[in-house]
Amino acid sequence: MEKSPDAFRTISEVAEDLDLPQHVLRFWETRFNQIKPMKRGGGRRYYRPQDVELIKGIRHMLYEQGYTIKGVQKLLRENGNQFLVAVGNGDVEAVEAIAQRKQADTAPMTPAAQPRLDDEMLVGEPRAKPSRRFFGLGKADDEGPVQSGSGKLSRDNRALLQEALFDLLECKRLLDQVR
């Protein structure tokens, strides 16, 4: 018999549905404090539907996009749970909406900074977009590493480069283990 989509899931059900070992789920609970299954007598875990969706997003970023645990923790810190849930579900529109909301929260909207009708960019600032890297699309043409005209890296681009370096070092470590 099939469970309701709103029903709680045991660790074995979640592990089977997401093709993950149970010990990985337990480990992720220690690394991502956003994963909070209910625990009943004897320590049995029961995952809420939102926990399962979040785990799905974490799995996607770690296994399919090659992020490190620290990288995913940073994404969660900066963008929230709903961002990773949207990424895990492949909901590009929701990811873009969250990124635009975040941009709107950090920069006050003055009449000069209202979106243009063509929605290509905000007047005076580049339009906030989620990184194409989330979906394996590489880097967008307009996401160059150098700020226009200054010759120095912006804080955001420096963070992206540092994250890419950590990802490359992790890949090298994994390759060295295989050899």
From TrEMBL:
Superkingdom in the source lineage: Bacteria
Keywords linked to the UniProt accession: DNA-binding
GO molecular function: DNA binding; DNA-binding transcription factor activity
Domain HTH merR-type intervals: 10-78
Pfam families on file: MerR_1 (PF13411)
Region spans: Disordered: 133-153
Keyword Repeat in annotation: no
SUPFAM superfamilies hit by this protein: Putative DNA-binding domain (SSF46955)
Name recorded for this polypeptide: MerR family transcriptional regulator
Organism: Pseudaminobacter soli
